[in-house]
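Why do we care about 3D structure at all? Because function follows from shape, and shape follows, mostly, from sequence. That is the central idea of this module. The next example makes it concrete: a single protein chain, its amino acid sequence, and then its structure expressed as tokens.
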Amino acid sequence: MMTIRLLLVEDHDIVRQGLRALFELEPDFEVVGEASNGLAVEGLVERLKPDVMLLDLMLPGLSGLEVAHRLREKAVKTCIVVLTMHSEIGYAFEAFQAGVLGYVLKGSGIQEVLKAIRIAFSGVRYLSPPLTETALHTYAAQMRDTPQHALESLTARERQVLVLVAQGLTNADIADRLVIGQRTVETHRANMMRKLNLHTQVDLISFALKRGLLQL
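And the structure:
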């Protein structure tokens, strides 16, 4: 039996420790390391060379997506399986774009997590129910169909708001940054989303990444 050498990356100690205890019951699993923030991951991967990394998306220091992008740029062979609370298909799309092989929701049972890790280890992509490959392909098509000229239709202020929203700033933060009223920010944001045919924060971040408006 081949052993899967596993790195756990999760900022909540109790979750990480619980996962480790469960994985250690599996004869084909060996937990070789742990990390609680994104900044520590690259060094651990380089030193430990795990087969699979179980990665949370929301981490201090660097987000899980940023970690995945950096490892992909370095052509690291470690398979990445995301374990996250985010069930929006846009997050899964961005994760797979970043080179992730598995996407599992935290509401899943431990058997689902084990299945995802084993499948990813075999080199096959895994997407946790209720998310589906069909939904993923539909989302990808919608992103491709968003015309470039839609971006050009934005005013200079709407483009500023687009970038700041994609960076994670709240309406109040943006109002302070641009020295305008919060209601004005809300208006610019609504107009920008309408022109670009975007509906969620995830859609907006994905659009900004694809158009090179954000740098990970």
